[in-house]
Amino acid sequence: MFLRAALRLLLWRWLLLRRRWGMIQLIAVLSVLGIGIGTATLLSVLSIFKGFHRAVESLLLRYEPHLRIVSSRGQWFSMAPDTIKYYARIAGAQAILPTISGRLIAQRGGSFAPAFFVAAPESAIRQATAIPQSVVVGDFEFQRNGMPAVVVGSGLAERLHVLPGDTVWLWTPTMLEQWALGIPMGTGFVCVVAAIFQAPAGEHHSFALYTDTAVGRRLFGTSPQTWSAVDFWLSGIDAVPEALNKLQRHISPLLQLLPWYELHRQLYEVLRLERLATFAVLSLIVLVSVFNIAASLRMSIAQKRREIALVQALGIATAEVRRLYLAQGLVLGTVGTAIGLIIGLGFYWGQQYWGWIRLDPAQYILSTLPVFLEPWDVAVVVGVALGLVLLAAIYPARWAARLPVAEALREE
Asked: Which of 212, 263, 249 is nearest to 86 (CA)?
């Protein structure tokens, strides 16, 4: 037992990289620094991407619902107010917005522009969305001087050259079809612009037009209790899966449930793929450093063939030699990963609490660079770094264990 312990001590004393400073040790140190830089970069960039992702989600959900009920067969469906409230209780909704919506053409003089029309109760819009708080000129109201009023997105207002108090004409697809067929018709539905809002949530809202439910029913000719969508706002994104499961057990098969990420699937997929692609590209930094660790271990083994052969001749098992070099690779990888964790998490906490990197409010919606990390993200980065190190250390460790003892001693 004493002899094996002494031999094991000799093994660790002779075969570690710390015996002399040279090229092998320099490569090992640079590899550790490379892993640290790669890990820190991965954590920092991942936190920025997730921060922007959550900022976009938060921004969208100020104007768009967590859950939307639509018809699975056509544009319209009937739903009584009591049924809407019943579904809202099941989902745990904090705000409800039944809407009549569709595409139409807005006209002002000789200017025409496509618009996304949304008709809903004024009180529900105020409770559920941030449209009233986004008004830049005018007053959020659906009646003005006895006329039906509309609240117009900034992009649509610019296209039509309208200001609060101006009148606009609304043309539905049915009206335009009748006009194209030569059927006599009026001049479209006339309403007055009450306000202009600017929503930083994309072009969809920039060309939106909001008004009262009664206007929507007159324009599209729908009956009472007929809707194109019923929107629910929940307590937060985390409540969506549970509410979705509950509603799916009670909702009619003629209706379809759309969570927020289905409503913005294209944007959601772009953000997700961009984050994954960036993670894969930045992982190459760690991968290059890991190969350097493998190279330094391989060079160390070649330099210490005599010591390896000697301790094996004295009775040390080949598995012990293999474990030594695996441990040596993991130690280097762990040190580099720890350095990266300190730097990456330091940047994350500093940016989150002190806002080191600020954005120009004249050009960006956010005042500081957003960051967000979850424990799972840190675990994935650490797991990837250490997993790559372990894979890289396997080959030189196995090579060291397979060195021919007699040949190595004879050469020396």
From this structure: 249
CA-atom Rg of the chain in angstroms: 33
Considering the domain architecture, whether residues 248 and 278 belong to the same structural domain is answered as: no
Tokens representing residue 201 in the block = 């949530």
134 and 34 assigned to the same domain: no
Dist. CA 251–CA 231, nearest whole Å: 14
Torsion of CA 285, 287, 291, 294, to 10 degrees: 120
Output DSSP code: residue 61: T
Determine the Cα–Cα distance for residues 46 and 40; give it in Å rounded to an integer. Answer: 10
327 exposed, middle or buried (CB, 10 Å; 0-12, 13-18, 19+)?
middle
- Based on the fold, state whether residues 250 and 279 are members of the same structural domain: no
Instruction: Transcribe 34-99 into DSSP letters.
Output: HHHHHHHHHHHHHHHHHHHHHHHHHHHTTTS-SEEEEESSSS-EE--HHHHHHHHHHHT-SEEEEE
Residue that finishes a domain, picked among 246, 263, 280:
263
Q: How far is CA 164 from the centre of its chain?
A: 37
Residues 258 and 273 in one domain: no
One domain, residues 151 and 272: no
One-letter amino acid of 72: S
Tokens 């018809």, residue?
A: 71
The H or E element spanning position 195 is strand 189-197
**pLDDT tens readout for residues 334-353:** 888 899 999 999 999 998 88
Q: Which residue has the higher pLDDT, 380 or 284?
A: 380
Q: Which domain holds residue 128?
A: 67-263
**Does 22 lie in the same domain as 44?**
yes
Count the domains in the chain. 2
pLDDT over 70 at 310, yes or no: no
Beta strand segments in 135-187, E = 135-138, 143-144, 147-153, 167-171
67-119 pLDDT, tens per residue?
A: 999 998 888 999 999 999 999 999 999 999 999 999 998 989 888 899 999 99
Mark whether 181 and 236 lie in a shared domain. Answer: yes
Whether residue 144 contacts residue 194, with contact meaning beta carbons closer than 8 Å, is answered with yes
Angstrom CA distances, 162 to 55, 95, 153, 166, stand at 31, 31, 11, 6
Say whether both 175 and 259 belong to one domain: yes
User: Cα angle at 92 between 91 and 98, to 5 degrees?
Assistant: 70
